């Protein structure tokens, strides 16, 4: 099984949304996991709400702490836009940074915009993965 690791600070919104979108459409043999450098106590209510609008249930998801093992075992690591200070894994070769705004505390309309940007990026990623498989 190949793994994509989505990383953000709190693992409460961006990386959880990316994991949800990826796993909902992942090709056979692929999965996504997510984690945070400073995990929150719970997934953002706004993230749960806007993902439910897309048919993806994050209500049972829980933030996880990022470990070196997760990074080493992943086939691909994608940072959501945490910055080097909060996400030292951006310093490793091969880590891709999507540069997404943090939706924490943002109005739900802004959270939807970020969700939609994440969905576009995940779809592009899935297209590349499926194209490499051919």
Question: Which features characterize this protein?
Answer:
134 residues, alpha/beta, Rossmann fold, globular
Structural features, described:
- This protein has four helices and four strands.
- The protein has about 130 residues and is α/β, with parallel strands linked by helices.
- The chain has one domain (about 1-134): Rossmann fold (3-Layer(aba) Sandwich), CATH 3.40.50.2300.
- It has a four-stranded parallel beta sheet.
- β1 (about 1-10), α1 (about 15-25) and β2 (about 30-35) form a beta-alpha-beta unit.
- α1 crosses α4.
- The chain is globular and about 40 Å long.
- The mean pLDDT is about 90.
Task: Describe the SSE topology.
Blueprint: E1 2-8, H1 14-25, E2 30-36, H2 45-52, H3 68-73, E3 76-79, E4 96-97, H4 108-133
Parallel strand pairs: 1-2, 1-3, 3-4
The mean pLDDT is 91
- What would CATH call the homologous superfamily? Response regulator
Q: What is the number of domains?
A: 1
Number of strands: 4
Short note summarizing the structure:
The protein has 134 residues and is α/β, with parallel strands linked by helices. Helices cover 39% and strands 15% of the residues.
